[in-house]
Amino acid sequence: MRILVVGAGATGGFFGGRLAAAGRDVTFLVRAARARTLHGRGLRITGLGEDTVVTPRLVLAGEIDGPYDLVLVSVKATALDAAIADMYPAVGPDTLIIPFLNGMRHIDALVAAFGEDAVLGGVAKVATSISPDGDIVRLADLQSLEYGARREPAPARLADVHKELSGAGFPTGLSKTINADMWAKWAFIAAAGAVTGLPRGTVGDVVAAPGGIDFVEAVIAECFAITAVAGYPADPAFARTMLTQAGSSFTSSLYRDLVDGNSIEVEAIFGDLVERARGLGVSVPVLEMTTLTLRVYQGRHL
Fold first, then answer.
1. pLDDT confidence of 301, banded at 50, 70, 90?
2. Could you tell me if 74 and 90 are in contact, meaning their C-beta atoms sit under 8 angstroms apart?
3. Beta-carbon count within 10 A of 171 CB
4. pTM
5. Are 42 and 56 a contacting pair, CB within 8 Å?
6. Distance in angstroms (rounded) separating the CA atoms of residues 267 and 275
7. How buried is residue 70: exposed, middle or buried, by Cβ count under 10 Å (0-12/13-18/19+)?
8. Whole-angstrom Cα distance, residue 7 to residue 101?
9. Of 22, 65, 187, 205, whose CB count within 10 A is highest?
10. In the predicted model, what is the mean pLDDT of the chain?
């Protein structure tokens, strides 16, 4: 099975690298600057005692030679429109696409470009970052993929996709509730981003401050109220455990982007969530304030 991984960053590079190391037929669609780094150093996964180096097969926009069987999309939401244009020649009538982006609005964009039948749902769970040298650094022992059909009937070749992605050094799951899974992850990502991003601190910093626990509880309540009213109720227990631990050094990827002065996915994670909340009649004043604050930040860093 020919697999195209769109993006070789902290998520796509990690899972694509694992698949390539396991002998799968993987090609990465990357930009020229990333290609230079990967040609020079290889695709390197480090951290937690690991030092894996893969010699990746790379392709630039305009060099795709035909359709792939499976396309894994792992770019930031802010790069999705460009990625869709770049990957268009890789998508044929039998190609399946699994996106691993935050939020839900990317699904609409991919469906508009490639059709309902081509686009599956996906959830990636991983704690990685990119080092100044361009290496993928593991931050915690978290690495799994879940994917599945967003509607019935599921594509007949979905079982082949599951077989191809499994047994490559990370847990995989073929989910029958992938829409709910995506909503649950969105609620957690938004809660973690708001809790650490708005006050600019670790979970431990936030809960140690006067009013910190009340702030965390308010964020969690708003995020999970939206999923419930949208028809995908999720258990907030994991979010509450992760985001209320005294002394925890946990931060969100959004927090790390803020600290590093990088562009952030404010519209995909927060803007779209707040808009949906308004449409559903759910009051979310903390998320509205978070969205405004992050939009101001983003406006200064475009």
1. confident
2. no
3. 10
4. 0.94
5. yes
6. 10
7. buried
8. 11
9. 187
10. 97
Alpha-carbon gap, residue 4 to 13, rounded angstroms: 12
| Cβ atoms of residues 205 and 146 within 8 Å | no
Q: In the chain, what are the domain boundaries? A: 2-175, 181-301
> What are the DSSP calls for 75-121, one per residue?
--GGGHHHHHHHHGGGEEEEEEEEE--SSSHHHHHHHHHH-GGGB-E
According to CATH, the topology of domain 2-175 is Rossmann fold (3.40.50)
Q: How far separated are the first and last CA of the chain, in Å rounded?
A: 38
Report the alpha-carbon distance of residue 218 to residue 128 in Å, rounded.
28
Q: What is the mean pLDDT of residues 12-26?
A: 98
Which residue reads 């994670």 in tokens?
269
> Which segments of the chain are extended strands (E)?
2-6, 25-29, 43-47, 50-54, 57-59, 68-73, 91-99, 121-130, 136-148, 172-174
Q: Which residues does residue 97 pair with via DSSP β-bridges, in sequence order?
A: 71, 119
Phi, psi of 55 (to 5 degrees): -90, 100
Can you tell me the distance from the alpha carbon of 20 to that of 13, in angstroms, rounded to the nearest whole number?
10
User: Which CATH number does 181-301 carry?
Assistant: 1.10.1040.10
**Residues identified as active-site:** 185
List, for residues 59-86, the tens digit of each pLDDT value: 999 999 999 999 999 999 999 999 999 9
At residue 29, what is the residue type?
L
Pairing status of strand 50-54 against strand 57-59? unpaired
